[in-house]
Amino acid sequence: MGVSGCGKSTIARELSKHLKVPFFDADSYHPQENIDKMSDGKPLNDEDRASWLEILSENLGQWEADQGAVLACSALKEKYRETLSKNVEKVHWVYLDGSYELIMNRINQRKGHYMSGRLLESQFQALEIPQYGIHVDIDQSPEEIVDQIMSNMEIKKSEFGVFGLGVMGSSISLNVADKGYELSVYNRAEGGEEHVVDEFLSANSEYKNIHGFTDLKAFISSLSRPRKMLIMIKAGPTVDLVLNQLFPLLEKGDIVIDGGNSHYMNTKKRFELAREFGIEFIGAGISGGEEGARKGPSIMPGGTRESYQHVSQILESIAARDDFGKTCCTYIGPGGSGHFIKMVHNGIEYVEMQLLAEIYALLSKQMNYEEIATLFKDWNDGPAYSYLLDITIRILEKKEGDGYLLDLILDKAGNKGTGSWSSKAAFDLGIPNTMMSSAVFARYISSFKETRVEMALEKGAGKNDSTLKIDLKSLEKAYNFGRLINHQQGFKLMESASKVYGWDLNFSEIARIWSNGCIIKSHLMNELHEEFKTKQDLFQMNTVLEVLNKDEKSVKDILSNALDQRLSMHCLTASYQYWIDMTSSRLSANLIQAQRDFFGAHTYQRIDAPESEYFHTNWL
Ligand code: 6PG
Q1: Do 138 and 212 belong together in one domain?
Q2: Domain harbouring 60, CATH code
Q3: Of 295, 328, 346, 447, which is best to mutate to test ligand 1, by the most ligand atoms within 8 angstroms of its C-beta?
């Protein structure tokens, strides 16, 4: 309410979006004679307004019975307000307060409205400022006014906030809303994202518990304290920009979760920034893609245990469930541990994908896609089940016209960096994760398409004469072998980080939360969950060792066949090489040591002396 020109309609329209109730403008309910009178510059009297107020009052009763509404109405006098509210149980009065000069100035700028500046004086004469309700000074931006109204209204505050409505942010938001939480969502309204919030809200208008914001302060004040919010934006420098903007607006004890694929070292730095502001920061890996985010992802939160307690209920409720019905979200450890293990998850993901790509290439030599899909289905029905195998079957079956879509896809693999981060971390920690590096390099090599095409022409387009007959049982064993080594290398990388950074990671729990919801979910993960309860790595697990020993021959056969066909087998080869090295009591590293000592006097240890002693030889 407020005099004409105070901005009622604009503010009411905005408020209605925030409150997710319809907006009505009392001006549209005036009978024609009132409009004519005002257009003639004559003020309305009580009598003129009587029927108009009665109509509005009846409507208000109906609107309240429906779902509530925001009405923009001058409601200048106390008796008008009594009429307006007689059919409703609960009215929030909001008085928009502005000086005569300010409003006159605004009215003069307003074109095509029947209410001219001449009537303003009579409006001020009629105005009886209410002694109740929310009073807001109109000499501020509409966003600030709405923000102030929202924070003063006795409405339920949201229990959780999601910042960023990209694919993952939108899906997680709906997941949270499905669990019954009052949720605020925010997305900036600039840079081509002007309509993101509006479109999200209208596409999901059935959710009355989602409240959308494009104004950051309003978003923040819509959250109950301590505020809990999940940031779902592209990893990288944008995260720092957002946190620098956000932290000063928050209060001590508020909890901010970065749910993107941030690098664990950046997460470590962000903890320090958060600490300066007294904010509880959580770096959470979230896996499962769009579908996982919507229906139940695997969540890997890292930070202090105390901060996690504040958000555990919400995070655990939106996560996937394991085979025993337990949530696929567990506290991982301090600092950047959550993002570290998400990074390793992605490294394992790269290898699982590459292994399947290698097997597909090999099988394509002797089978069509339908046959390969049938074989994969057979594998997937057994212990080799994995989500990635499952989607590979569906990809193989996908047709476009008479052909297969897969044949039309350019063979240049992209990446967003997490695989290479895993490799770099492994280099830094001194851990041989040869399969992840091979998978990353295989993607890099694929991107050199032009060179490959040129070189292939010179080699006669990669033709070969030998006929291939792959033993399918051997191939299944080789695939399983590669996967076991992949998981061994991935878990060893986490084990090393856990020791170096003092994270005390629980590998059984990590395997458990990766048994569903995430991209690398598989039956193997369930086995590892059990085995890791008593074992530290896969080479300590008898079941794993037996298989690796038994199936080594199959890997060798498959690899020699594949090489015969000039097929690239980056990951399978790396798995076999790793196995050979790890099961060889003597490697050729003695020569490396001799060379190092020869040219640089780097010294060497001897087999006939204690390892603590170092020797140097004058080789010349
Ligand atoms: C997940 C995925 C997800 C993302 C990959 C893709 O767990 O949901 O890992 O995080 O799809 O990071 O990575 P690339 O673009 O590097 O293949």
Answers
A1: no
A2: 3.40.50.300
A3: 346
pLDDT digits (tens, 9 = 90+) for 435-481: 999 999 999 999 999 999 999 877 764 455 567 789 999 999 999 99
Number of domains in the chain: 4
* 285: phi then psi, degrees, rounded to nearest 5: -75, 135
Query: Residue 173 in contact with residue 165, Cβ under 8 Å?
Result: yes
Ligand 1 atom with the shortest distance to the CA of 297 = 8
Distance between CA 335 and CA 213 in Å, rounded?
A: 30
Q: How far is the CA of 416 from the centre of ligand 1 (A)?
A: 7
What is the predicted pLDDT for the residue at 22?
A: 92
The structure tokens listed for 190 are 């600039």
Contact 344, 494 (CB under 8 A): yes
Q: How far is the CA of 453 from the centre of ligand 1 (A)?
A: 28
d(CA 515, CA 494): 17
pLDDT tens figures, 207-224: 999 999 999 998 998 999
Q: Sign of torsion, CA 467 473 474 477?
A: positive
Same-domain check for residues 67 and 180: no
**For residue 395, which amino acid is it?**
I
Domain, as residue range, for 316: 156-335
For position 471, what pLDDT does the model report? 95
- 233 within 8 A of 164, measured Cβ to Cβ: yes
Query: CA angle, corner 85, sides to 80 and 86, nearest 5?
Result: 100
Both 79 and 41 in a single domain? Answer: yes
- Does residue 417 sit in the same domain as residue 525? yes
Q: Which H helix or E strand runs over 83?
A: helix 78-85
Greatest Cα-to-Cα distance within the chain, rounded to the nearest angstrom: 117
Check which CATH number belongs to the domain holding 212 and give it: 3.40.50.720
For residue 525 the two structure tokens come to 């993960």
114 pLDDT band, cuts 50/70/90, is low
488: nearest Cα among 610, 377, 578, 397: 578
Burial of 234 (0-12, 13-18, 19+ CB in 10 A): middle
Position 96, amino acid? L
Smallest Cα–Cα separation from 50: which of 66, 33, 64, 65? 33
Q: Is residue 51 part of a domain?
A: yes
262, 137 in Cβ contact below 8 A? no
Q: Residue 2 falls within a domain, yes or no?
A: no
Task: Give the distance, in angstroms, between the CA of residue 419 and the centroid of all CA atoms in the same chain.
Answer: 17
